[in-house]
Design goal:
single chain; 133 residues; alpha+beta; two-stranded antiparallel sheet; 4 helices; elongated
Length: 133
C-alpha cells in the first residue's frame, strides 16, 4: 500500500502524494503544515466516494465524505451542465434545428433527475445520475 500525507487546507482535505524522490517523512517535515499525518492511501474514500473529493472531510485520522456537500456539489454540476445544454437547445430552436428530445420531455427529465439527487442516500446513487444531454 502506498502512503500519502493528509491535512486540512482552508477547510478542504489536502492529499500530498510524494514522488518517491524523497522519503515520506522528509516530505512531511519539509512541505506539509503542522498537523499533517501519514496514512495508507487505502484508507481514503474509494469508489464513488472518491469522485466527491471536494466533499471530503478530515476527522482526526479518518477521511470521509460529507454527503450533504456531495449532494450539493452534484446538484450544482448538474445545473451547470443543464444550463449549457439548454443554451444549445435554444440555439438549435432559433436555427430551425430540431432537438433530439422534445422540450417537455427534456424538462421532465431534469425535474426527475433533480428529485433523484435530493432523494439519494449514497454517493453511488449520485454518480448513477447522468448529467443532462
Amino acid at each position: 500500500m502506498a502512503q500519502v500525507i493528509i491535512y486540512e487546507n482552508n477547510g478542504q482535505v489536502a492529499v500530498c502524494i510524494p514522488t518517491g524522490l524523497l522519503d515520506i517523512q522528509t516530505v512531511l517535515a519539509k512541505d506539509c503544515p503542522a498537523g499533517a499525518i501519514i496514512v495508507d492511501d487505502s484508507t481514503l474514500p474509494q469508489g464513488s466516494d472518491a469522485q466527491f473529493f471536494d466533499a471530503w472531510v478530515l476527522n482526526g485520522t479518518t477521511v470521509s465524505v460529507n454527503f450533504s456537500k456531495a449532494q450539493a456539489d452534484k446538484l450544482a454540476q448538474y445545473n451547470a451542465d443543464a444550463l449549457q445544454v439548454a443554451n444549445k437547445r435554444n440555439l438549435n430552436t432559433l436555427a430551425g434545428i430540431a432537438n433530439a428530445v422534445a422540450d417537455a420531455d427534456w424538462q421532465a427529465q431534469l425535474t426527475a433527475d433533480r428529485a433523484s439527487i435530493a432523494a439519494a442516500t449514497t454517493t453511488a446513487q449520485l454518480t448513477a445520475i447522468a448529467n443532462p444531454s
